[in-house]
Specification:
Blueprint: H1 2-36, E1 39-40, H2 46-50, H3 57-70, H4 87-93, E2 97-98
Parallel strand pairs: 1-2
Length: about 100
């Protein structure tokens, strides 16, 4: 009887652990999917820009203001021309933004 209880407890622990790994894989998949969708600097809304790491409302507004005054970004590297965006931020954002 003790062996049966032990086996049942062990089985339930295994099933719980397996379910947690499955949930972790699903979360990673969602993150990967989000990373694959690049934000277009020339058409993105304020909300889309704010979704980028390190970009708040002020910086997003500055990006929109820059493209309104100066026209479309020709390359992602042009992002450093926006007030408040430096080389470090550009490197963070390079894989997550595009211009066309």
């Amino acid at each position: 009887m003790k062996k049966l209880i032990f086996i049942l407890l062990l089985s339930s622990a295994f099933l719980t652990t397996s379910a947690n790994f499955a949930n972790a894989d699903t979360a990673k998949s969602k993150i990967s999917q989000k990373q694959m969708t690049k934000v277009n600097l020339n058409t993105a809304s304020l909300e889309q820009l704010v979704s980028l790491p390190g970009v708040g409302k002020k910086k997003a507004a500055a990006i929109i203001e820059y493209r309104t005054k100066n026209g479309k970004f020709k390359s992602v590297d042009d992002l450093v021309k926006v007030k408040g965006v430096g080389k470090k931020m550009l490197e963070k954002l390079k894989g997550q933004v595009k211009t066309s």
